[in-house]
Amino acid sequence: MVVWSKIRRDFPVLNQLYEGKNLIYFDSACMALKPVQVWEAMEYYYKYLGACGGAGRSTHSLGQETSMLTEEARVNMASFINAASPNEIIWTRNATEGLNIVAATIPLKKEENVVTTTLEHHSGMLPFYKRCQETGSEMRLVEADKDGTLDPADFEKQIDDNTKIVSFVHTSNLTGTVAPLEEVIEIAHDHGALVVSDEAQYAPHSKLDVKKIDVDFSVLSIHKACGPTGVGVLYGKYELLEELDMFLVGGDVIEDVIYEDGKIIPKYLPPPHKFEAGLQNYGGMMGAGAAVEYLQKIGMDTIHRREQVFSRKLLEGILELEKFEVIGPLDYKQRAALVSFRPKSGSINHNDITEYFNEMIPSHKILMRSGNMCVHPFQYQIGLNPGKGEGVVRASLYIYNTMNEIEIFLTELENFAKFID
Length: 421
Fold this sequence. Notes:
Number of strands: 15
CATH topology of the largest domain: Aspartate Aminotransferase, domain 2
CATH class of the largest domain: Alpha Beta
CATH superfamily of the largest domain: Type I PLP-dependent aspartate aminotransferase-like (Major domain)
CATH architecture of the largest domain: 3-Layer(aba) Sandwich
Number of helices: 14
Largest sheet: 7 strands, mixed
Order of helices and strands: HEHHEHEHEHEHEHEEHEEHHEEHEEHEH
Helix content: 25-40%
Strand content: 15-25%
Number of domains: 2
């Protein structure tokens, strides 16, 4: 049995006053807080090791332990998403870098096309847009419905035998929509296309089994999963990683660089190391391994069930306030534990709301995100204009939040509604 009050104590920032007020952190979709177990793992590296790891680097005791601990972290990450092998886990700086690696290294011909959606984070759309511009390939967009849901039938209309890549977000950071990933993978594979899933918002909150769903590539940002910043993961089926070209070259990716007859002949390492050029973020890797180990001990199914209860309370509470419009599906079962909303009318904008909740409540600071969440195309689609400063407020929850915090927020939001014309 999980004792949630004990979990909360693992996050020191929530157990102190900030400017004399209690903190309610509703911005986990942007950045999850870090438990003590994560920064203790990182502190161990910086305090007691601090050495080079990796293939062909320092082989002394500190270097050997650094290499051992980072590879243990890779094993933890493989277990977290049920990869077939730790060799299918590539360390990156973030999900954005992972998406760029895939977009840049999958061979793409002019007559082929890439399919993505209007609901994508810019990081999930622009790398493929750039590649299509470079190759002359076609980029096809599946329009999300007005409530942010995605219909497999719409993918069927866009995917054909010339589709090389289908890339889309598993859970939207704007609408909270959970996409029909398995159905789309089946459609794509029937046409011989590769599927890339953006798991930045899904994997920290629900069990991701890459073998079961048969996805070809997936990306994660560990800072959204209680881990450190500057660490991400690219998962790929090993046989596909073997086929991909290099993204960066330099140290740590080579087995040998032969020099003969005035020429160099490089021999590269196999995956995952062929994609991990240069000195790595060893402390961050150890922190990442500790983060997913922490989440697995709680249990991803346990986390998901708890968040479903919280999602319902948050969503239905905001819907009861007539002065706000909710962006995304109105059924909590179709979304993750985040709600984006905005005033239906009046002169108050999204930034006014977050500033009020950060500064003006006497006993609490309620911390939320305002803006466009890097999902401009969908907002234009539903009538918002990011270019003119229109945006939304997003309240997003995680393992350390409580039902009492949601109730406090809803009470204060009801009070704030009185200021709206």
